Amino acid sequence: MTSWTVRPEPYDSATAAALWRAYYTEVSDRWYVRETGRRTPPDALERGVASETGADLAPPSGTLLVGWYGEVPAASAGLRLLGSGRAELTRVYVDGSLRGSGGGSALMAAVERTARESGARELVLDTRLDLVEARALYARHGFREIPAYSEGPYSEIWYGKKL
């Protein structure tokens, strides 16, 4: 039986880049389909992928965690320390073919452990309403809706959890 393991990964590795592209493609395509009825145009997709380096997930103020299903990198989550005991969860992704196999739960356990070890007492995040799988994952792991703590064109709902 294949199992999940989660470990830190350099934000600028080839593994991190592949998972970022998969994550960005999925969330961008969902938005484009919702708003225009078609997938993300290739040039817009490339601009979007290139617009985020992930450097904010470098230690000591950030961490990128990668979930491995056996030997396959198939999930990721970023953690940014915001100060005052607060950390932000970002870029949560599990490959669609492996959703429901425990990857999200393995990621969430690793994120919480890493946040606590970094001194965080609260995790927060923002997301879009149409990312229903992610929202269900957060709810299953004790996140509750909170007032907005950030602004952004794709921030539609905010969650928090005391650690």
User: Widest sheet: strand order?
Assistant: 1-2-3-4-5-7-6
The CATH level-2 architecture is identified as: 3-Layer(aba) Sandwich
Helical region count? 4
Count every beta strand, where a strand is a DSSP E run of 2 or more residues. 7
Task: Quickly count the domains.
Answer: 1
Approximately what portion of the residues adopt beta-strand conformation? 25-35%
- Secondary structure category: alpha+beta
The shape, in one word, is globular
CATH topology annotation: Aminopeptidase
What can be said about the biggest beta sheet? 7 strands, mixed
Uncertain regions spanning at least 5 consecutive residues: none
String of helices and strands: EHHEEEHEHEE
Instruction: Let me know the CATH homologous superfamily.
Output: Gcn5-related N-acetyltransferase (GNAT)
Distance between the termini: 31 Å
Radius of gyration: 15 Å
Q: What is the helical fraction, as a range of percent?
A: 25-40%
CATH level 1 class label: Alpha Beta
Mean pLDDT: 95
SSE topology:
Elements lengths: L3 E5 L5 H23 L5 H10 L10 E8 L2 E12 L2 E9 L8 H15 L4 E6 L4 H9 L3 E2 L11 E6 L1
Parallel strand pairs: 4-5
Antiparallel strand pairs: 1-2, 2-3, 3-4, 5-7, 6-7
InterPro entries: Acyl_CoA_acyltransferase, Bact_Acetyltransf, GNAT_dom
Protein name: GNAT family N-acetyltransferase
Pfam families: Acetyltransf_1
Would you kindly provide a written description of the structure presented here, covering whatever features stand out?
Residues 18-163 form the N-acetyltransferase domain. This is GNAT family N-acetyltransferase. InterPro entries: Acyl_CoA_acyltransferase, Bact_Acetyltransf, GNAT_dom. Pfam families: Acetyltransf_1 (PF00583). It comes from Streptomyces cavernicola. 35% of the residues lie in helices and 29% in strands. It is of the alpha+beta class. It has four helices and seven strands. The model has no long low-confidence stretch (mean pLDDT 95). The radius of gyration is 15 Å and the shape is globular. The protein has a seven-stranded mixed β-sheet, with helices on both faces. The protein has a single domain (4-162), classed as 3-Layer(aba) Sandwich (Aminopeptidase).
